[in-house]
């Protein structure tokens, strides 16, 4: 593992995103829809940076399983508890990679008629995008590489690391090892 972003650098990006959201929404109420499990640490830090009224709900979708490569099949594992119709909604995602999962989620939520629907991500891998989808709020833009830490995992491990690390592609575990 090689450290890419320290906890201090991550905190700076989270603060900057929070300032953008505060500027855009000021005293308007927003609903953060946190994509579990990876976004939980980012969302916790982000909501503490927000000055506007905030409510939070969680959704769980997956296209990776235990693999380092998206299967392309998006599965909704935990649905929303909140009616989002007429609300200002921000999807909080840890990473946008191919965009397949987020695009499916975005369209799913769009059908529920929110007043506004925006995307917020800590990590944006634009070069790996396979579908058209853009973040309204993005912290770190990077090219490629499989990363772990600060909520990002490999087979449910490494989420607890307080920094973000790049895994050596030559030493990635195979699906049977993860």
Lay out the secondary structure.
Blueprint: E1 2-5, H1 7-25, E2 30-36, H2 40-47, E3 54-62, E4 75-78, E5 88-96, H3 100-110, E6 116-124, E7 137-141, E8 147-148, E9 164-166
Parallel strand pairs: 2-3, 2-5, 5-6, 6-7
Antiparallel strand pairs: 1-9, 3-4, 8-9
CATH topology: Rossmann fold
CATH architectural name: 3-Layer(aba) Sandwich
In one word, what is the shape?
globular
Number of strands: 9
Structural class: alpha/beta
Give the CATH class: Alpha Beta
Q: Give helix and strand order, one letter per element, not per position.
A: EHEHEEEHEEEE
Give an overview in words.
This protein has 178 residues and is an alpha/beta fold. The chain has one domain: Rossmann fold (3-Layer(aba) Sandwich). Helices cover 21% and strands 29% of the residues. The protein has a 6-stranded mixed beta sheet, sandwiched between helices. Strand 5, helix 3 and strand 6 form a beta-alpha-beta unit. The longest helix is centred in the first third of the chain and has 19 residues. The two termini are 16 Å apart.
Observed structural traits:
alpha/beta; Rossmann fold; 6-stranded mixed β-sheet; 29% strand; 3-stranded antiparallel β-sheet; 178 residues
